[in-house]
Amino acid sequence: MDGEILSEALFELIRRAVVDLPGDVELALREARDNEKNERAKTILGSILENVELARRESTPICQDTGVLVFYVRYGTVLDKKLVDESIIKAVQKATGENLLRPNIVHPLTRVNSNDNTGVEAPIVYYERVKGMDYLEVTVLPKGAGSENTSTLGMLDPARGVEGVEDFIVDSIKKAGGKPCPPTVVGVGIGGSSDKAMYLAKKALLRDIGSRNPDKEYSDLEKRLYGRINELGIGPMGVGGDTTCLAVHVEDADCHTASLPVAVNPQCWAARKAEARV
Ligand code: SF4
Fold first, then answer.
1. Ligand 1 atom closest to residue 146's alpha carbon, by position in its atom list
2. What is the pLDDT of residues 210-256, one digit of tens each?
3. Contact 223, 216 (CB under 8 A)
4. pLDDT tens digits, residue range 105-126?
5. Which is the closest atom of ligand 1 to the Cα of 145?
6. Which of 65, 101, 237, 269 to mutate to test the pocket of ligand 1 (most atoms within 8 A of CB)?
7. Fold of the 146-270 domain
8. What single string gives the DSSP state of each residue in 145-176?
C-alpha cells in the first residue's frame, strides 16, 4: 500500500466529513422541519438546513467545532498498521493546516494545544479485522465536545430490567437538555463491560438513520426510546418543540450475569460521518 495515496484519500475523507452532512441526516432534518409544530423550533431547523447547504456549496466546515476525529478501520487479512497510523496523522495535520479542522486537541491537564489535532492517542483509531475483506474501509466520525460532554455510563443493577435501562437513557437525555445541540442521534450501548458499552454507544452513531438493530427486543426499545425522548419537548437547540432526537440507535453485547452496563453517547444535529474504501 502506498502511504502517499492513502493519506491523500484520508484527507479527502476528512474534508467530506466536515463539509458534507450525510444524506440520511439531512433527510431526517428536513422531515423534522416539515413536521415540527413549534414555530421557533421550525425556524431553527430551517437555519440548520440552510447552514448545511451553505457548507456543502462553499466547502467549509458545517460547524466551527470540528470535534475529535474517531477513525474506524476495517481490514481483511494483512495490514501495515504503522503505515495506516502514519497516513491518518499526516491527513489530520494537513486538514488542520488547511483550516478544515479547528485545532482542538490539548494535553488534558496542562491544556497545551498541539495545534495540529494530533497527540497522545489522538486522533482515536479503532481497528477491526473482517474475515474475507480484500480492501481497506475507513470511516471517520468527527465528534463535537458539546454532545460528547453529555455522555453517560450507568452500571445498573440487573434487577432494574428493561424498564430501568429505558428510564436511565431517557433521564440522561433529559439532564443533557440543550447542551448536545439537539436534535440528536442518540447512540446507546447495552451490555459488554463499562468500556465496551461506551465503545458500542459511539459505534451506534455510524449507522444510517432509519436502520434498526436486527434483534427485535432492541429494535422495539429503539422505537420506544425515540417516542419517549421526543416527548421530553427539549426541541432543536433546547428551545422547545417536537424534535429532540432524530433517531435512537442501540448496539448490544452480552454481559456478566451480575452486570448491566448502559452507555449513552448523543451526537448533535451535525451528525457527521464519511466512509471510504481503499
Ligand atoms: S455539539 Fe455539534 S453542533 Fe454543537 S457546537 Fe459541537 S459540533 Fe457543533
1. 1
2. 999 999 999 999 999 999 999 999 999 999 999 999 999 999 999 99
3. no
4. 999 999 999 999 999 999 999 9
5. 6
6. 65
7. 60s Ribosomal Protein L30; Chain: A; (3.30.1330)
8. HHHHTT-EEEE--GGGHHHHHHHHHHHHHHHH
